[in-house]
Amino acid sequence: MKYGAFYTETARQSGASTTDAKLYVLLAYRDLLRVYPWSFTCLVTTLSVTAAAATTTLPDDFAELIELPSYAASSGKRRFVKKVPSREILDLFAQGALTGDPYKLALEASTFVPATGQRWALRWYPTPVADVTLTYCYRVIQPLLSGDDDYPAGGPMHNITLLEGALAHWEKGIGHVAGVHQQLYDKELAKSILFDQRLTAGVVLGTLETTADRRILTLVNDVTES
Question: What is the pTM of this model?
Fold first, then answer.
């Protein structure tokens, strides 16, 4: 389903205005992206580190570091760059300037500019002695839905979850309490999480549900109903 279909169906089922239905869908989409570390929000890519540069600016859509930057296995270097507090790197440099292959990093907020929003950078120790390309994984900030033809991230397997989330927001908006649509959303969210985990981890062919699946469903329901 596209954004236009989501808010149209939300308006049909709830009787809300188109303007309000759009807001309910956007609120549900925001909640869905935040509630779980979805595999479709994680991007594995490369990071170009420049010689003599103390920091490297991260992409504009950076939200969270998922897997630490690593050197190629064939490089002969220690594989991963360890993440430490900024203070530790500053203390190390206070003991004397050093260049080499970075083996420590700190995640730092760049100076905030209202026109561009929050940006982030990695500070290296020691200062890179040569250009190098590292591989890492980060969580992407998904853009909000705006055009009627926009698809939400994650694919059609999460359509019912998002729709019930929108209706749950409508429900709370008119009665200020959770109702049947919140209950349906909680159940669909648990299914979406299971699907996402199976998508990345894989399952034995022919297995429809495992003991672990049931434990996850119970856990998710306990959290959402509390």
Answer: 0.78
